[in-house]
Design brief:
Blueprint lengths: L1 E11 L2 E12 L1 E6 L6 H8 L7 E6 L2 E2 H4 L1 H5 L1 E4 L11 H11 L4 H14 L15 H13 L5 E5 L7 H14 L4 E5 L3 H7 L2 E6 L2 E7 H6 L5 E7 H10 L1 E8 L2 E7 L8 E3 L4 H9 L1
Parallel strand pairs: 3-8, 3-9, 6-7, 7-8
Antiparallel strand pairs: 1-2, 1-4, 4-5, 9-10, 11-13, 11-14, 12-13
Amino acid sequence: MELKIENLYKTYRKKEALKDICLTVSEGIYGLLGENGAGKSTLMRILATVDYQNKGMITFDGTSITALGEAYRAMLGYMPQDYNVFPSFTARDFLEYMGVLKGMEKKFLNRKIPEILELVNLTEAADKKVKSFSGGMKRRLGIGQAIINEPKLLILDEPTAGLDPKERIRFSNIISTMSKEKIVILSTHIISDIEAISNRVIIIRKGEILEADEIETLTKTASGKVWEAIADEETFSRLSRERTIIRRKQQGSNVLVRYAGEEFGTTENKALEPTLEDFYMYQCI
């Protein structure tokens, strides 16, 4: 299974949202990282056929997704960033409605819907109106409709927004469990979520792909560049001007700081193993 993007461009009026995107992905989970406005949602909308490129080609197993048409959409699960659920539907009704839109048979849906409700922890709310749901519950229902057709290609735009820590862990486990024989592309601002379930990441900046590689390969490039130190306020002020600050925590009159760059010579430093967040902050911002 292979999704290939070749020389993709997307322009809104005079603004280039995507510039010469070239990317090939196969089975597995891919994290999509980038600042707001980098082009992540635009790319996902095009892959989901909700929007269309100005130039370029997208193929699935060698055939244009335009030529595949409904056959491609039948293999697709998509959850957009701004996701609205009909408020008068119950959770069960909504999943059934989305299943019918995707061309699924009633007999299959009768078996599948209880499984999905259990997966996204909405069994007890199955017959409650969506208008009574919290934001997190609506997100979980959105995830449910995206996976109800057992898609080969699953595209999730900010799926963990509004989920509490327990729900985020549950979501990560769901995606990890169901990622066999699938291509999963998910975007999130929570880098630890990507690190938890994916070993590959795609980083977009200003509409262009900056990096696309395994997380371990990328983080290795920051080896020897990530440090922890305790500094007084004056030293921290100088350090923050000359290095990339990853994180700071006040400790009385001093600051515990994690930073990236060359070792700062005027304070005692402890070398740290770099994470994806360290790499992203150091190399991509």
